[in-house]
Amino acid sequence: MKRHESPARGAKAPKVVVVAAALALLGLGSCGQAAPEGATLRLQFQGVRVAAIDAVRISFTPQLMQRFTMRPTQMVDGITIEVDPADGALLMNVPGDYVRAHAVETDSAGLSPQLDIEMWSDDATENPEPLVRVTVTQGSDLIAQGSAYTMGWPIDLGSISTVNVMCTTGALMQCQRM
Q: pTM, whole model, 2 decimals?
């Protein structure tokens, strides 16, 4: 499958495997073992070219004063995963190179890339519908963002949650950088 190909032409979005919260506990990912079935977090960028993305930060903020639990910072396929000690939010930092390698274009103009991140966890802490916030930066500038209350925690296997990530006001030229 070619990256950046339009699904309208029959391409299917790739499944990118990221373990959110339990990689080291399960011992998966780095040993070549298959990942368990998980859920998909779909980032649907709107008005943003993949070339414009230097970094994506995804935070899962639990509701009701709860916290995510996991071991200290981990890295999976170039994505760092950690828990913010201040508020218990699960944080994923995705480099722009990773987005460019795994995103699929959904329109011919190249302004609607879609990134599917396959996630699973054995963290049994109940966190109903955490708030998922996505920020996209170019250098130190915020150029796109989006948020949604999405999948419950523990993750429902086989579910797909979509966060629409739109170019911010005033960043149109940066979002459409080639």
A: 0.76
